Fold this protein.
Amino acid sequence: MSAITPLHSAPPARPAARVPLDLDGPVERVASWAARRLYGKVLDPLRASFHHRGVLLSSLVLEATASRWKTLSPTLNALAVMVVAREIGCSWCMDFGYWEQHHRGVDPRKLRGIGQWRTSEVYTPLERAVLEYAVAATQTPSSVTDAMVERLREDLSDAQVVELAALVSLENHRSRTNAGLGLTSQGFAEDCDVPWAAED
């Protein structure tokens, strides 16, 4: 009997999360309904947080509050968040972040090229300074220098610098939580129909 070679290989199965994502109850159903209305599917970090109501509530309040931080431009916000997710290696955050920022109108070239931010010509000097700061602040221990912040303050207000620091911290929280729970891409970026550029 000869083996049959498939024309197309099946996509690899997503790794299982480290906690079950199938809790079901009244709160879970309402939250899942709201997520489907907003995003078209239930977000895996939300499903994971169903296990701990305190974490669920705190996360929802924090995200709702952070969504009102508007002193930075959408592009600077997106770049800071995306480069942190990449540094930590959170595929869920990269996937969802690309989808979210794409729909906010951020230049797709800047989102796709995040792996080459040091050399790519699509970034302005200020954008590169924001990316450098976000990467340095994500390292353990932090490698942010006074010179990095002084460079930022040439173009950003003190309020914007504080917002940037808080965004980097918030994305560290998201990415480390999601990566620690084994949450991986849910296919959001595929809906944008824009391929990722090769990483450096």
Q: What stands out?
A: Residues 158-180 form the longest helix (23 residues). The chain has nine helices and no strands.
